[in-house]
Design a protein that fits this description.
The complex is a heterodimer of chains A (272) and B (279). Chain A is 38% helix and 24% strand. Chain A has 272 residues and is α/β, with parallel strands linked by helices. Chain A has a domain at 18-97 and 177-270: Rossmann fold (3-Layer(aba) Sandwich), CATH 3.40.50.300. In chain A, the strands form two sheets. In chain A, strands 6-7-8-3-9-10 form a six-stranded mixed β-sheet, with helices on both faces. A four-stranded antiparallel β-sheet of chain A has the order 2-1-4-5, with helices on one face. Chain B has helices at residues 16-49, 56-95, 102-140, 143-149, 154-192, 197-207, 210-236, 242-274. The radius of gyration of chain B is 23 Å and the shape is globular. Classes of the chains: A alpha/beta (272), B mainly alpha (279). The structure holds adenosine-5'-diphosphate and magnesium ion. Adenosine-5'-diphosphate (ADP) binds next to strand 2 and helix 1 of chain A.
């Protein structure tokens, strides 16, 4: 079905299919009512995409999933755990399940590539330098960064947009999260780099078996990599389903979004 | 839906008098909430100092940034402030034929007033603006959110080291200012005005004591608190983009400088009650 999820069953148990469930999520910033009752289900082990125009609150929604923002109303369950009331300590534990790839990578400017990638390990565990370097180098290799000369000592401003995204992904992956959140991973990249990042997302999903949540307003990319697509508009999820289901939807907001991004062809290409 | 959205029509109608009182009170309320928010940030930063982990490297980095980064400008300003003070003091003292007091006059005004205040203004301009820019750009590029995702407290990681480093470096930099300032005064007095060196030193040592330097050091540490809290607050709370970071940087320097001069006024009162001038 393409209708967004609704109802308020018992979500306090781990569900085999749905890893994250969001119900009735509301968030206001001053006079601005950004989220007006979001219902969303995130499927385990799949690539879940949330599309929507800019300023619709996609990033705000994503930040709620790992507790970076507290909702005004509504609930979020991760593996059956209601995360909204969690305190700092428990939130820290919950956040280890997540890795987040920020829109512009959010690499620490004061640290080089290795220090950036190793940061979560250094902050969370007491590992030897050897162990840390082994894991960092393994990720650099998997993300096709090992070939870049002198990459380990480079600082963020010396990297290209695509490289920054990869380093950001490496940092998100190093503590082996179950859920990866990507905020507009292809925004600001040229088409080739964007395609590479798409491939990297798919490959990461396969290699690490993670649940991916991708925020996007890039329709071509959405239909290329998405298993499940939801659309955020007017502060709510207005449609949710597989790419075929979503494409078949007659909702005017969705039709307009798909048509203005001229992606019908790309979508057809993605599903021969 | 919640009930929060049904309040528009029932807005209470204020009379003219009430509206005037409201208009007069709102800046006052603004000032109190402004001070309150800064005090809260300072409190959170200090509380975080006593929680694990203690990241020594971050403190050393900030001390280097505040100290080494501002050294040149402090030496430069210190030297000329000392020389100018000597010039002014000699001009005034000459009326009474008492030029030999120049060492004491300059030494005292540097120790208690000029060195702490000028050093603080320099550090607000140099290090405070840098802190606001750095924190602001970390905020808008989501580096601060990223810290939180790794269960790192951004106040502990970013703010605490900056405040502590500024508070520790301020008295040291003030001492540098004192020394360089005296040297500037000495050069001016001895070589351009031909004051007797022995009298310069004698009057200086007779009229100043460690107390003056302790007062200067305490004042400078307090200035370190106010200027670094102002800078961190501006940077940490940036919303928006590059333009807002620029605004925050300007605000950090303005608020930092004002906070130094305002707290100076109160500190002078307090110290002069505790230790009246020698007579
Ligand atoms: N921390 C915040 N404080 C105030 N307003 C915010 C904050 N975060 C987001 N907003 C506002 O919420 C709206 C949605 O933002 P966002 O989620 O970033 O949109 P997008 O869908 O483009 O990711 C925007 O209008 C933004 O200005
Ligand atoms: Mg966004």
């Amino acid at each position: 079905m393409t209708a967004p999820p609704s109802g308020s069953g018992d979500f306090s148990k781990r569900d085999e299919r749905w890893q994250i469930r969001v119900r009735g999520l509301q968030k206001t910033f001053g006079p601005q009512h950004v989220l007006r009752g979001v219902d969303l289900d995130i499927e385990r082990g799949r690539t879940n995409i949330v599309i929507g125009g800019s300023g619709q609150g996609k990033s705000v929604l994503m930040k709620h999933l790992m507790g970076l923002l507290k909702p005004d109303a509504g609930q979020i369950w991760v593996d059956g755990e209601d995360i909204v009331p969690l305190g700092t300590q428990q939130m820290g534990r919950l956040r280890r399940k997540f890795g987040m790839v920020f829109q512009y990578a959010a690499l620490f400017d004061s640290m080089n590539v290795v220090e950036n990638i190793a940061f979560p390990l250094i902050e969370r565990y007491h590992l030897s330098r050897g162990e840390i370097m082994e894991r960092v180098r393994d990720l650099l290799k998997r993300l096709d960064l090992a070939g870049v000369t002198g990459i380990e000592e480079k600082f963020p401003p010396q990297l290209s947009g695509g490289q920054r995204k990869r380093v950001g992904l490496a940092r998100a992956l190093i503590d082996r999260p179950e859920i990866l959140l990507y905020d507009e991973p292809t925004t600001g990249l040229d088409p080739v780099a964007a395609k590479n990042v798409d491939e990297m997302i798919s490959r990461t999903a396969d290699d690490f078996g993670v649940t991916s949540v991708v925020i996007s307003h890039d329709m071509a990319s959405t239909f290329r990599i998405g298993d499940r697509i939801s659309m955020l508009a007017g502060g709510k999820i207005i449609v949710s389903g597989t790419s075929e289901e979503v494409l078949a939807s007659r909702l005017p907001e969705l039709r307009e979004f798909v048509e203005t991004s001229g992606v019908a062809a790309a979508a057809a290409g993605a599903h021969p | 839906m919640s009930t929060a959205s049904v309040e528009g029509p029932s807005e209470p109608q204020l009379g003219v008098g009430a509206a005037l009182i409201e208009a007069a009170l709102s800046p006052v309320r603004g000032i109190f909430s402004y001070i309150g928010e800064h005090a809260l940030l300072l409190w959170l930063a200090l509380a975080a100092l006593f929680r694990k982990p203690f990241r020594l490297r971050l403190f050393l980095e900030q001390m280097e940034f505040v100290g080494v980064g501002s050294l040149t400008i402090i030496v430069l300003v210190g030297f000329f402030s000392g020389a100018v003070s000597a010039q002014q003091a000699i001009a005034a003292l000459r009326i009474f034929n008492q030029e030999r007091f120049v060492g004491a006059t300059v030494g005292l005004s540097l120790a208690q007033e000029l060195a702490p205040v000028f050093t603080a203004l320099m550090i607000a301009a140099r290090a405070g603006s840098g802190m606001a820019t750095e924190l602001g750009s970390m905020r808008i590029t989501e580096q601060i959110d990223a810290l939180t995702t790794f269960a790192v407290d951004p106040v502990q990681y970013l703010i605490t080291p900056r405040i502590v480093a500024t508070v520790l470096m301020m008295p040291i930099m003030t001492m540098v200012f004192n020394i360089v300032g005296l040297f500037g005064a000495y050069l001016y007095a001895i070589f351009l005005e031909h004051i007797d060196l022995g009298q310069f030193i004698e009057q200086f040592t007779y009229w100043t004591d460690p107390k003056d330097y302790i007062i200067g050091a305490v004042k400078s540490a307090v200035f370190g608190v106010t200027l670094s809290v102002a800078a961190c607050y501006q940077g940490f709370n940036v919303r928006g983009g590059a333009k807002e970071v620029g605004l925050a940087t300007t605000q950090a320097v303005v608020a930092g400088s004002v906070s130094v001069l305002v707290s100076d006024y109160f500190l002078i009162d307090i110290f002069h009650i505790l230790w009246p001038y020698k007579s």
